[in-house]
Design a protein that fits this description.
heterodimer; A: mainly beta; four-stranded antiparallel beta sheet; B: mainly beta
Amino acid sequence: NAGVTQTPKFRILKIGQSMTLQCTQDMNHNYMYWYRQDPGMGLKLIYYSVGAGITDKGEVPNGYNVSRSTTEDFPLRLELAAPSQTSVYFCASGGLAGVDAGELFFGEGSRLTVL
Amino acid sequence: QKEVEQDPGPLSVPEGAIVSLNCTYSNSAFQYFMWYRQYSRKGPELLMYTYSSGNKEDGRFTAQVDKSSKYISLFIRDSQPSDSATYLCAMSVNTNAGKSTFGDGTTLTVKP
């Protein structure tokens, strides 16, 4: 059971570079999310998607872009990387109905450093 | 003031102790309350999920919600070294759990 898979696990970027964090889930979940977690802090929602072709901004979307062309994949694009984007990024997927309503499944995280 | 405030910790207890982890919140519209456990360098995993006020028990874990006081707790009985992790509370106004507001986490260490 793969669950939610994120790549890469680690990456160092120079200021101004761009990159894409990949996220794939094999649970056929409609809902997918990207968060960032700064040291000692909780999760902040960057973008989310309720299904293929539908995305929306979360709490901290500036400097990021997403797309959702399939149910399985939800990549996060960083354009013109800045030191403030140094963080750990988590992708998650989840269901909505009944007892599954609260359960999010997280990937293992992508640790990004911008120098 | 943050919408969700979590006891900052860190917390260190001996094996077998009862642990109490707590969060307070200001948004009275929150109806769904979650606790996540996050091991070092791993993603969070859902531990407990409750709707509205009341208690929910699962093995050694009990989640308690007091909406009148805007206060939630997670109790761990007979704590084990394997419980050493960061615990995050999260709350949402609807069933879209991914749009929850998260606390900053409390790091727990259980010493053998």
